Amino acid sequence: MTGNWSVDEQFEIIRALGVPGAFDAEREARERIAFLAGYLRQANARAYVLGISGGVDSLTAGLLAQAAVRALREDGYLAQFIAVRLPYGTQADEAAARECLAVINPDLGLEANVKTAADALFTEVRKSAGDLFGTARDDFHLGNVKARQRMIYQYAIAGAANGLVIGTDHAAEALMGFFTKHGDGAADVVPLSGLNKRRVRAIATYMGAPSDLVSKVPTADLETDAPLKPDEEVYGIGYDAIDDFLEGKTISKSAAERILAAYRGSGHKRALPIGPAFVADPAAAP
Ligand SMILES: Nc1ncnc2c1ncn2[C@@H]1O[C@H](COP(=O)(O)OP(=O)(O)OC[C@H]2O[C@@H]([n+]3cccc(C(=O)O)c3)[C@H](O)[C@@H]2O)[C@@H](O)[C@H]1O
Ligand SMILES: Nc1ncnc2c1ncn2[C@@H]1O[C@H](COP(=O)(O)OP(=O)(O)OP(=O)(O)O)[C@@H](O)[C@H]1O
Ligand SMILES: [Mg+2]
């Protein structure tokens, strides 16, 4: 026991997030491509839909999805990968997003700007609930609206194309609860689940992604007032510590405490909506 956490809790979290002990990029890529191909076919769906931001998570998921639909087509099953660009106004790292698209080379590329819808909704929210807003956190709340507008767009496309929405959540973000509930956290399949950040990067490298995109500084990029704010600045610790934690390594007490506080406070984001406990009444059985 160190401070208010134990190694047992660390390993319980590693198990809960499905992080395997051993890692081999080639095997992980192959199995995750096979998973995506198999799931699309058994769902009788015809497309995967994914937002491409310029970050390494969507780059990696996009490379896996494009490989999966290519394999399905070679097997005679009609399927496509639809990559979507969803900037809010002008995106500071637009060039990286373009580079990702060029690397993935998706079957279909779509683009829509979420600024009009996000701003319109947020203006109405503020107008109707003004007393609750007008704080320094307004920009933060608008950030979650942006993430949810991206979700709405992707589900509209999936509905029209008989497709499934890909989410890019992985173990490092799941651990920190670092996603918008029902925003980027909403998806049908999560092909990066169980991976920490350095393993996501290793798969991207294995899949042939250039090093500038693989090592790009991770950013949620949701705050208008702080474009490209690094995730690590928000966490107050680095992905290296988070990744080490998920690999069962010993990390500093202060980093472990930050991680555990984030994990313990975000359980609701990793679970289905909760209701009152249902207790079966044997007398009511037919
Ligand atoms: N105990 C509880 N049980 C059930 N539900 C609970 C709850 N506590 C809050 N909630 C609900 O959850 C809501 C808060 O969750 P949420 O709306 O997600 O909001 P929140 O967790 O406050 O903010 C999202 C965070 O994720 C980051 N993010 C978002 C999107 C993408 C990325 C990225 O890496 O790209 C990062 C973003 O920068 C921000 O720090 C509350 O408003 C409430 O509705
Ligand atoms: N501007 C955007 N255009 C399209 N999709 C986006 C955009 N911003 C975020 N997304 C979607 O939301 C997901 C979550 O963002 P997140 O920042 O966690 O991942 P990333 O940008 O792919 O990688 P990184 O975490 O390294 O920045 C992205 O993977 C992508 O699918
Ligand atoms: Mg990002």
UniProtKB/TrEMBL annotation:
Highest taxon, organism lineage: Bacteria
UniProt EC number: 6.3.1.5
CDD domains tied to this protein: NAD_synthase (cd00553)
Catalytic activity from the UniProt record: deamido-NAD(+) + NH4(+) + ATP = AMP + diphosphate + NAD(+) + H(+)
Binding annotation for ATP: 51-58, 168, 197, 219
Pfam family, one: NAD_synthase
Binding site for Mg(2+): 57, 173
Cellular compartments per GO CC: cytoplasm
Key words of the record: ATP-binding, Ligase, Magnesium, Metal-binding, NAD, Nucleotide-binding
Binding positions for deamido-NAD(+) per the UniProt entry: 148, 181, 188, 268-269
Keyword ATP-binding: yes
Record keyword Transmembrane present: no
Domain NAD/GMP synthase: 30-273
GO molecular function (one): NAD+ synthase activity
Pathway where this protein functions: Cofactor biosynthesis; NAD(+) biosynthesis; NAD(+) from deamido-NAD(+) (ammonia route): step 1/1
GO BP field: NAD+ biosynthetic process
SUPFAM superfamilies (alphabetical): Adenine nucleotide alpha hydrolases-like
Subunit structure: Homodimer.
Record family assignment: Belongs to the NAD synthetase family.
NCBIfam families: nadE (TIGR00552), PRK00768.1 (NF001979)
Function: Catalyzes the ATP-dependent amidation of deamido-NAD to form NAD. Uses ammonia as a nitrogen source.
Protein name: NH(3)-dependent NAD(+) synthetase
Gene transcribed to yield this protein: nadE
